[in-house]
Design goal:
Elements: H1 4-20, H2 26-30, H3 40-63, H4 75-87, H5 91-110, H6 127-152
Helix pairs in contact: 1-5, 1-6, 3-4, 3-5, 3-6
């Protein structure tokens, strides 16, 4: 992942993965991936709401050359709220929201010149750091879900 296009393509991988989960039976979608762990639904809700948070509080402000509005969040509380949100959504709606928010993130990042990707906005975060961190975050959760699904097969 060296060029802007390669980074955006990698970051877009989540879209196809999320869409593929539409085929899961409800019990697999809603069942924990392991004892005491989240379900695929919880994980997708978690990813979508982090995407939405960073879109609103970091990525869009970066694109608009505005101050970042990220706060020190209680990650556990945020993640619990994300899992609870997933319970209120149908599988199709949650997958659709995940795809829409990720596409919007990609569009906003696409509008940022590659020459600005390593600029640390407000001394906090650069586009490159965001893309690397959240690509790795995506891959961690995709691997968890894929392992779960392989064990069910």
């Amino acid at each position: 992942m060296n060029t802007k296009q390669e980074k955006l393509q990698a970051f877009a991988e989540l879209i196809e993965f999320a869409e593929s989960l539409d085929r899961l039976p409800e019990e697999q979608w809603a069942g924990p991936i392991a004892e005491g762990k989240w379900s695929p639904r919880d994980i997708i809700s978690h990813i979508m709401l982090w995407d939405k948070y960073f879109l609103e509080h970091a990525v869009r402000p970066m694109a608009e050359h505005q101050p970042l509005t990220m706060e020190n969040l209680d990650f556990n509380e945020f993640n619990c709220n994300a899992a609870a949100y997933g319970l209120t959504q149908s599988k199709n709606d949650l997958i659709r929201q995940t795809v829409e928010v990720r596409k919007e993130l990609l569009e906003v990042i696409e509008s940022i010149p590659e020459s600005e990707f390593d600029y640390k906005h407000d001394g906090k975060l650069s586009v490159d750091e965001y893309l690397v961190d959240f690509y790795e975050h995506d891959q961690h959760h995709i691997a968890q879900i894929n392992t779960y699904l392989a064990e069910l097969a």
